[in-house]
Each structure stands twice: as C-alpha cells, then as structure tokens.
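Hi U.,

Before I forget, here's the chain from the pilot set. I'm dumping it here mostly so it's searchable later in email.
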Amino acid sequence: MERATRQNTAIREAIAAAGRPLTPTEVLDEARRHVAALGPATVYRNLKALVDAGAIQVVTLPGEVPRYEVAQLRHHHHFRCDTCQRVFDVHQCPGDLASLAPPGFSVSRHEITLYGQCSECRPAAKGRPRKKAPAHPHDHSH
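Structure:
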C-alpha cells in the first residue's frame, strides 16, 4: 500500500519538521505539501495510529483542539501564543511543585502552559520600536 505509506510518512515528517505541537489542520496543511491529495479523514486516522504506535503524543490544552508532537521521553511544558494560537515547547521546568498542593495531597505530575505572544507576534518583532511602559503601582500581574 504505497499511497498509505506516503501519506503516513508525510504526516510524520510534517510533525517532526514543525518542531512544535500541531493541530490536525496544521498537520494537514503541512503534509499536503508532499501529498497533495491528502484528506482530513486520512490525517485523523494516521494521527490515531501514530499515537497508538508511540511515535507521536497528544498535547492537550484546556478548551483547545488536541495537538500532536513527536513523542518525547523528556518532561517539558508548552507556550501558547494569544495572537497566532500556535503552541511551542518549553524545556525549562520549575521542578518539584509538591509544595503547592494542599496539605496531605500527593503530586504525581504537573503540566504548565504559558500564555502570551510568540517572538513573531510581539510588536518589537514586527519592526516597531518597543517602548517600555512605566510600571503601574497597582499592577501585580506577571
């Protein structure tokens, strides 16, 4: 089944080349560069098969479409851009967060998602001079 192999390979390569978690639509758009006739049903079927085979893993953010990335044994977190909605890997980790749990609770794992603007969407990245706003005395956001 040569066609299915080409489709599967195009999907795997699209995810690997992106270097970040992709939505099924992003996978479809990227994989179509190599297999123009690729359809959404084939992408979903292959994503499921690749997850089941352990080649890729699901990245789930609350209220969002699942994304897919190359399976990694290394613990990591994610950053979601509020402007372009793309998700990126964050390899730094604050470490053991057990102290944040209520007394008597046991933490077995954690997932952290950072939100903001990616380097391409930040105003400074678009060539506009970035002015540092004076800190507001009542602003406690981080």
